[in-house]
């Protein structure tokens, strides 16, 4: 895909989303960003986009509510004129012991991590068809891509991220005739979650064959690689420093 003057929507991307937005803008893309609570980070990402001379839009959206997904796509098209790229990064990542996990807590994760990705893709397909095609990039997780849970307490998160892989494959088939390519990225140790101790961080490095955290730039590189391709669809690509082979 030629990225010049295209429009991308990034949902829920804070630290990684900021870097991805900047790289897209550097390639000539106008960027819409959504946030649930992190307005400061979304505004910072938008400022970075505008700093390259490209247009940016920021919108608050509670993607756990189905109408918000279609409204976000409509706002992007209404403000920036089109939609060519959807990057589903919105995610809820919380630890909940199985014995105390409630239906509401299950829904809080699955509705954002999986259902919202479907609903945003469903809404985005129409404006992409109008332009002759597009790209959808979903976000899974290296653990789900490896096909085996490793950590207790993240049941709905694992199930949702495994579902993203199936969603990506099924959407790729459904939308191939419209020249809409659908892929997913499964990050591994990219950036340490807030609250990670030095000891925990070093343990991750020891468990990763490349011996380090990847950093946000590695996700941006993977996003651009998938956007540049005109013949990869239905794939979930791990960006994990080889973590899955150990």
Spatial strand sequence of the major β-sheet: 3-2-1-4-5-6-7
Uncertain segments: none
* Distance from first to last alpha carbon: 35 Å
CATH classification class: Alpha Beta
Within CATH, the superfamily carries the name NAD(P)-binding Rossmann-like Domain
Q: Rg to the nearest angstrom?
A: 17 Å
What class, by secondary structure content? alpha/beta
CATH topology: Rossmann fold
Helix amount = 40-55%
Question: If you had to describe this structure to a student in words, what would you say it looks like?
Answer:
By secondary structure, this protein is an alpha/beta fold. The protein has one domain: NAD(P)-binding Rossmann-like Domain (Rossmann fold). It is 47% helix and 15% strand. The chain is built from eight helices and seven strands. It has a seven-stranded parallel beta sheet, sandwiched between helices. Helix 1 packs parallel to helix 2 and helix 4 (103-130) packs parallel to helix 6. The longest helix has 28 residues, at 103-130. The protein starts with 6 loop residues before the first strand and ends in a 7-residue tail after the last strand. The model has no long low-confidence stretch (mean pLDDT 96).
């Amino acid at each position: 895909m030629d990225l010049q003057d295209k429009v991308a929507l990034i949902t829920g991307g804070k630290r990684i989303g900021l870097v991805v937005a900047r790289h897209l803008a550097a390639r000539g893309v106008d960027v819409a960003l959504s946030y649930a609570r992190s307005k400061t980070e979304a505004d910072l990402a938008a400022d970075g986009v505008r700093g390259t001379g490209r247009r940016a839009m920021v919108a608050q959206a509670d993607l756990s509510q189905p109408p918000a997904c279609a409204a976000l796509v409509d706002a992007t098209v209404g403000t920036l004129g089109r939609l060519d790229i959807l990057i589903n990064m919105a995610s809820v990542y919380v630890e909940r012991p199985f014995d105390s996990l409630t239906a509401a807590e299950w829904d809080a994760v699955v509705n954002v991590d999986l259902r919202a990705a479907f609903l945003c893709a469903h809404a985005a397909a129409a404006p992409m068809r109008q332009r002759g095609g597009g790209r959808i990039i979903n976000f899974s997780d290296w653990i789900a891509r490896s096909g085996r849970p490793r950590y207790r307490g993240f049941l709905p998160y694992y199930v949702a991220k495994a579902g993203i892989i199936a969603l990506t494959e099924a959407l790729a088939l459904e939308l191939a005739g419209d020249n809409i390519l659908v892929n997913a990225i499964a990050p591994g140790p990219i950036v340490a979650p807030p609250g990670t101790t030095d000891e925990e961080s070093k343990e991750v490095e020891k468990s990763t064959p490349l011996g380090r955290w990847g950093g946000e730039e590695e996700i941006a590189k993977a996003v651009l690689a998938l956007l540049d391709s005109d013949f990869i669809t239905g794939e979930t690509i791990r960006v994990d420093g080889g973590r899955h082979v150990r």
